[in-house]
Amino acid sequence: MSRSAHPAGPRHADVFPEAHYSAPAADLNVLDEKVWARTVTRDADGALTVGGITVARLAEEFGTPAYFLDESDFRARCRAWADAFGPDADVFYAGKAFLSRAVVRWLKEEGLNLDVCSGGELTTALDAGMPAERIAFHGNNKTVAEIERAVETGVGRIVLDSFQEIVRVAHIAQRHGVRQRVQIRVTVGVEAHTHEFIATAHEDQKFGIALADGQAAEAVRRALALDGLELIGVHSHIGSQIFDMAGFEVSARRVVQLLAEIRDEHGIELPEIDLGGGLGIAYTSEDDPREPHEIAKALSDIVTRECESANLRTPRISVEPGRAIVGPTAFTLYEVGTIKPLEGLRTYVSVDGGMSDNIRTALYDAEYSVALVSRTSDAEPMLVRVVGKHCESGDIVVKDAFLPADLAPGDLIAVPATGAYCRSMASNYNHALRPPVVAVRDGEARVIVRRETEEDLLRLDVG
Ligand code: LLP
Whose CA is nearest to atom 5 of ligand 1? Predict the structure, then answer.
């Protein structure tokens, strides 16, 4: 992205010198392929197409706002992860990023496993035919009913997150006359953020069992002592939207150290480790994510090296990418409703959705990009803030971006990289109707999650 180009009109940085935004791209009509799903392109008329269908047709058929998901891109990313890790490792897609029955079928067909973290996700997975043994069940406070169902249906692994849960799962498994395969989730003292990681001496968060003060070793002792459990390994998830592999390196080293301590104390080598998810994606042109094969190589090199120095057999590795698979495959399509130029500040562009379909900007100060997609334009770039239609001034979709100055009500604009944690965290705030997810592939579009209707709202409101 060129930093020398100058925007037309007021420069945000002149007004708010501390503000973060990049200069506009030299040509706003050019789509940066880093942030858009793979089949996205502009057609001869300048309209954006995905899977060979133009956004005008999609908007007409499915309405706006709506999420459009590039199915072939999703499948290609699944295959890239599976191929990168190979037959001696397992890739579990993290369903919390976005889950539907169609997605479960694609995962199954592409050979991936699935991480679920609630009864609802488990039901979706099983209903769509994911074999139970390919499911991992997560969560820091699984209910007894959820554990019962997981054990009854034979999920491949339950990831234990507390001392209470070790006992709970063991009792339930025993009652069902089975030995449940489990992992113990440990907190390794690494807190990872976007672009950085901070090694913390102590843990101050709700997940997992701390390594630092011997708690994890005690959890292993207890799990090994219970007949209902088959302890297959140790699990660590260090955070989300991570680009730097250094956090994974520390995490892998500490997990392998624990395996060595377990071998020394109990005389057994646990066969598996799970290094969680959290790999970052490009939301804007400034993000540079790694390819799955680079990630796979980095992780397996770290684990192999650490195991060699601890004189351990290298365990089978699993990973749980969510965002890195589904995030880049979808965009949200909005129609522009109102445009308010604020003299000396910026132009507010209101769309027909907002924080109900993308809470990430309000919640995490997340950065997104945006493009005019119903047409091209040669107008000058204008500094905009894309906002929603909710009764809240924090209802921001894209904080700072550039759109052509001739933007008009009725134009379609799209926000890329909204496949992860947008529909799955969508809400009904202001009784908004949650948008549909439409899968597009080879010239065909089909709804995989339908738009909510006002009848849906009234059906839940029982008077
Ligand atoms: N495995 C475990 C145990 C997790 O807790 C998570 C995410 C993942 C895997 C997948 O992480 P991913 O590869 O998708 O980053 N709502 C937030 C993200 C929360 C992630 C929670 N756990 C967001 O919108 O950024």
Answer: 237
